[in-house]
Amino acid sequence: MHEVRWERMFPDQLEAAFAECPLVYFPYGLCEPHGPQNAVGLDGLKAHAIACAAARAGGGIVAPLDMWHIHETGGSAAWAHQAIGEVPRTWLTAIPPWQHFKNVLYHIRMADVLGFHAALLFTGHYGPNWMDLRTLCELVQPFVGTRLYGLPEFEANDPGFDGDGRSGGDHAGRVETSLLWALLPECVDLSRIPDEPGRHFAMGSDAARADRRVGERMVADEIRWLTDKGRALLAEYDRLRPAHTLRTFAQVEQLWDDVVRPQLKAFHTMQDLWEGSPPAPPEDSIWYPNWRVPDRG
Predict the structure, then answer these.
(1) 77's torsion region: left (phi>0), alpha (psi -120 to 50) or beta?
(2) Following DSSP, what letter does each residue of 54-101 receive, concatenated?
(3) How many domains would you assign to the chain?
(4) Close Cβ partners of 238 (under 8 Å, ≥ 6 residues apart)
(5) How far is CA 49 from the centre of its chain?
(6) 174-183 vs 42-58: helix axis angle to the nearest 10?
(7) d(CA 130, CA 150)
(8) Is residue 212 in some structural domain?
(9) How many CB atoms lie within 10 A of CB 196?
(10) Within the chain, how many helices (H) and strands (E) appear?
């Protein structure tokens, strides 16, 4: 099994991999409650593992996993009050939306500096985070040579994976548990699922129906989707031959101030509540202090 993880590769390996396929994967996720049966890093762990499998199959280099992602603000706080509850410790690796997306912009800058032809920004964290990730990529693409595409892990999933035609995404239920089980079986333990019904650290109600074989089929589907998308982005680069111009920290800050910041108020994760989210947490909830998103205009 050849190495594709940036941080574990030697310089000559990186140069050879880049020459063969100048595509980089940026995996994102965070540690958050995923039921008693899953490791808390499920979101990032699955994104990173799938990206590595896709890079081994179709070429490319996988950037180090970023496990600091959006939580505790807006709709995620409202959801957490309902799904997680008043627990003594949340075990989150949470940062606010504006910090996450500025970090992502610095990652994009590095792809452009190194001359990658294409970048797939691949998040295993759901909610509307992925919509803002895609918006960020669209906003900055005119200023970046690297061809960009941001997506949630479930976009690469066949919605008919289980014969029901529904979306392939859930939270710590059958889908995510099956995926992690297929990718990193040491991070799943179904024997930890309580017998009694109820709220269990944000566990999905159908988690006990997880099936490693279903997870393996989903992983295979996602690898095919990602390798196809990577080839399409590389072909777009070859057709356009754009210049790589986002080089300095100062340019990143200017791009943030001039292009991203004016649109930040409209980002889904910058709203106090999202469409379809539960109501705001009560003032005595542990999820209330960071719930209201400050004005970052």
Answers:
(1) alpha
(2) HHHHH--EEPPPB--EE-SSHHHHHHHHHHT-S-S-----EE-HHHHH
(3) 1
(4) 117
(5) 12
(6) 50
(7) 7
(8) no
(9) 5
(10) 9, 6
Domain ranges, residue 266: 6-159+223-270
Chain segment 114-150, per-residue pLDDT in tens = 999 999 999 999 999 999 999 999 999 999 999 999 9
Residue with tokens 């070859």, as numbered in its chain: 238
Neighbours of 113 (CB within 10 A): 15
Residue 191 lies in a domain: no
Q: Structure tokens of 117?
A: 């032809």
DSSP β-ladder status, 118-123 and 23-28: parallel
Reading the block at residue 109, the tokens are 């800058």
Q: What is the pLDDT of residues 155-198, one digit of tens each?
A: 998 655 454 444 468 999 999 999 999 999 999 999 999 999 88
Assigned token pair, 251:
């340019």
The per-residue pLDDT for range 224-269, each reduced to its tens digit, is: 999 999 999 999 999 999 999 999 999 999 999 999 999 999 999 9
Point out which residues pair with 26 in neighbouring strands.
Answer: 121
Residue 256 token pair: 């943030």
Q: What is the DSSP string of 104-123?
A: HHHHHHHHHHHT-SEEEEEE
For residues 121 and 150, the answer to whether their CB atoms sit within 8 Å is yes
